[in-house]
Amino acid sequence: MSSISPCTIEEADGRLLLHAQHAAKCELGCITIRTVDSDVVIIATYAFNRMSGIKQLWLDFGVGKSRRVIPVHELTTNIPSGVSENLLIFHCFSGCDTVSSFCSIRKRTAWKAWMSFREVDDAFQVLSTCDVIDDEAMKTVERFVVLMYDRTSTCTLVNQWLSSCFD
C-alpha cells in the first residue's frame, strides 16, 4: 500500500504536492511540477518549507512565450514570514478552485494589493485561525478589498468605496 493512500485532499492542486512529498520520501530530492495554474505556485510556495526531503522544487509554469521555470526553493528564501504563513488564506480569499474570486480581480492584482497593504497580514491570520472574526480584522479586510479594486482609494469600507464610485 502506498504511503499516499488513502488521501483526503480533493483538489488536484494539493494532490500535486502530496505526490511531490511522496517522491521526496523515495529519495528524489529534485522535483519539477508542470502547471499552468497560479494556484499551484501559491500552494507550492507555502508547502515547500513544510515538506521534508525536497532539496529543490521547480515549477514549469505557463504556456507559449510566457512559459518559465520557477525555482520555488529559491523563491521561499525571499518571502517575509508574514507572507509565507498567510499564503493559503490569500489563496482562498483571492479565489481558488472551490471558492469564488472577486469580480475581475486576478491573483496578480490581489498580490499587488497585499504587498502594498501588509497590514492585512494579521487579519488574514484571524481569518485562518478563528471561528469569529472581530470588527478590527473585518475593517482591515474591507480596506484590503477596496485596495484590490482601487489602489489609490482612501476609503476604508467597501460600501463607502462603492458610494464614491457612483457619485
Keywords:
2 domains; mainly alpha; 8 helices; 167 residues
Would you summarize the structure shown here?
This protein is mainly alpha-helical and 167 residues long. The protein contains eight helices and three strands, in the order αβαββαααααα.
Question: Can you describe this structure?
Answer:
- It is a single chain.
- With 167 residues, this protein is mainly α.
- The chain is 51% helix and 10% strand.
- The protein has a three-stranded mixed sheet.
- The longest helix has 15 residues, at 135-149.
- It starts with 11 loop residues before the first helix and ends with a helix.
List the topology elements.
Elements lengths: L11 H14 L4 E6 L2 H11 L7 E6 L6 E4 H4 L5 H13 L13 H10 L3 H10 L5 H15 L8 H8 L2
Parallel strand pairs: 1-2
Antiparallel strand pairs: 2-3
* Beta-strand content bin: 5-15%
Percent helix among the residues? 40-55%
**Low-pLDDT stretches:** none
- Tally the helices: what do you get? 8
Number of strands: 3
Which structural class best describes the helix and strand composition?
A: mainly alpha
Radius of gyration: 18 Å
Order of strands, widest sheet: 1-2-3
Distance linking N and C termini: 64 Å
